[in-house]
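User: Here's a chain of 192 residues. Predict its fold as tokens.
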Amino acid sequence: MTELTDAELWHRVRSGDAESFGDLFRRHGPTIHRFALRRTGHLDQADDVAAVVFLEAWRSRERTELASSSALPWLYGIATNVIRNWRRSRRRHEAALQRIGDLPRATSREVGEQVEAATEARQILEQIPRLPPKEFDVLVLSTWEGLSTSEVALALGIPPGTVKSRLNRARNRLAISQPLAPIPQLPPTSKD
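Assistant: Prediction complete.
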């Protein structure tokens, strides 16, 4: 039996034939891996790139028709995009590390305060699941979600005074003298 062409294999792959996709991988996987290794200079990254290339090829099988009799040019195109994304991600990571390195060093007093705050936070977090459900709901909505008293009241269908009393009881049970600050939301990441 003669070996199937890439176009014939791809026709079968588009129908969901995983075995034909495996044949395509065995045929072109080493080539794409070598290409990725030359472009990244990292064996582990080349492994990841090759895996992502074939994952993307499989995902796009139903909407992709080969422009030539060989799947290799198309696979090179996917690999180029994957590597480009990897490099962009690496630049962002290195820039973030640089920004962290530029931050002023914490003083020993600040480190001590951070350790103390972390210990207190851990103790509080261990106690929170033990709160009665009604107090827990109010605490989560007001503290973690940052809702106002009236918003919590609306969400739970209770009067604002009940929200305040449940929140006060929750704080007392947790032995929190100061109101908990809302957990900050992370800013959206910018696209390149």
